Amino acid sequence: RSSMQRVRFFRLALIGAAALALAGCGASDKAASAGAEIVPANAPAFVTIDSNADSGQWRQIEKLLDKFPDGGQATRFLRASFEEDSKLDWERDVKPALGDEIGLVWLDFKNQGENVVGVTKPKDEEKFRAAVRKGNANDSSGDELIVGELDDWLLISDSQAKIDRFKQQVPKGDSLADDAIYKDAVAELPDDSLVTVFARGRDLLQVIDDTALLPGGSLFQLQAGQRPEFIA
Prior knowledge:
Largest sheet: 7 strands, antiparallel
Strand order of the largest sheet: 4-5-3-2-1-6-7
Helix content: 25-40%
Number of strands: 7
Number of helices: 9
Distance between the termini: 26 Å
Structural class: alpha+beta
């Protein structure tokens, strides 16, 4: 994948990437995501990034980083790098817009895994939209981040087609939050979490089966009874 493709893909998590990289955002106290209520029940993968700026978990990480000689310097470097690349100011443009969580929903694993839609309920919708507009204006690649709406949630992707497809798959009664496999997966995770990753086993194994470039061997030759329902 080219450098430009990587940049375009990771910009799907425009605010989420900042939340992960910078000690200054936070985390909620639940492994299960509120966003799972609008995620299609058959989604092959769902990643949530908790971004509650008032939580104490990231403050604990800040304290931990401060114990290392270059911990504070690393945080400042990451923030400066983010601001230089995006032309967004963390304190002014990003932090005020963050809600409780940002989710990334994989519609499928085709197209090199780029069929992704972000879901979030920002604290300040206008500031969030303004941050996206500012990021788009400063992106020389010409690939804009698009924002859509669904109920009280915002949908973010790099194409309107992906947003439209997500809306077409929105549950009419069943959602990922109601899916037995997803509920089993998050039930085994700690209550306090910064990032939650859920992937459906059958979809991951199908990617392995369809990828001729992956090496052989016992790791990739699982028997029927060894095929996991999920990875979390």
